[in-house]
Amino acid sequence: MRLLLIGAPGSGKGTQAERLAQRYGITHISSGDLLRQHVQERTALGRQIQSYVDRGDLVPTGIVVDMLRKPVVAAVEAGGYVLDGFPRTVEQAQAAFPTAHALGAEVQAAVHLDVPRAELVRRLLARGRGSDDTQEVIEHRLQVYLDETVPLLEYYANREWMFAVDGAQPPDAVHQEIVARLHKLSAFASETS
Ligand code: ADP
Question: Which residue lies with its CA nearest to atom 14 of ligand 1?
Fold first, then answer.
């Protein structure tokens, strides 16, 4: 199974991705976690991207695509992926498509976790992850989401494999709603029964 989770900062992508990975035996790949790991370990890539992450700006597409290639290929070989945080822009979706297509690893479903802005801000302030969770950076990340990721949702809007769920519910309820919607997609009729 190959899934995308799309949502604003604080929408619960990580939590839901983890649960889906467990339920379906697929690999959870978080672009944000991988980028933060590079920053923490001070790799060459980490030094190159730290300022973007700290400001709440998107890391350039080429860097993110290169970073994800290996883990995605490995995940596909191991049974599938749930990608959390990628793609985040139309440009990223377009950049990744030819590779995914060549590998026969195109996405089978994309889930939009829909959460009202006030709830996002509340959750992000409560989380306090570090340098990119100050009020100012949070506001900026939400603006980047509106400017860059909402157009991606519009770009995918008429695909039959894209759906939105109410991400303001408790985590269990969100998970159940995603699973129920996946069951209804013909691509998963056998995998989710
Ligand atoms: P959140 O969704 O809560 O902002 P993430 O962990 O997904 O948290 O992302 C944190 C930061 O990592 C982003 O603000 C951005 O700087 C960087 N990042 C994550 N995914 C991408 C991506 N697909 N493209 C560019 N930058 C990314």
Answer: 56
pLDDT at 89: 98
55 touches ligand 1 (CB under 6 Å): no
Give the whole-angstrom CA distance, residue 74 versus residue 21.
14
Report pLDDT for 142.
95
Say which residues have a Cβ less than 8 Å from residue 180's Cβ, sequence separation at least 6: none
Strands 109-114, 81-84: pairing kind: unpaired
Q: What contacts 103, CB < 8 A, 6 or more positions away?
A: 73, 76
Q: Is the full-model pTM beyond 0.85? A: yes
pLDDT digits (tens, 9 = 90+) for 149-181: 999 999 999 999 999 999 999 999 999 999 999
Query: Which residue's CA is the nearest one to ligand 1's atom 15?
Result: 58
Mutate to test the pocket of ligand 1, among 13, 53, 119, 149 (most ligand atoms within 8 A of CB): 53
Give CA–CA dist 49/60, Å, rounded.
9
Three-state secondary-structure class, residue 54: helix
CA distance 189 to 51: 44
Sheet-wide strand order for 109-114? 27-30, 81-84, 2-7, 109-114, 162-166
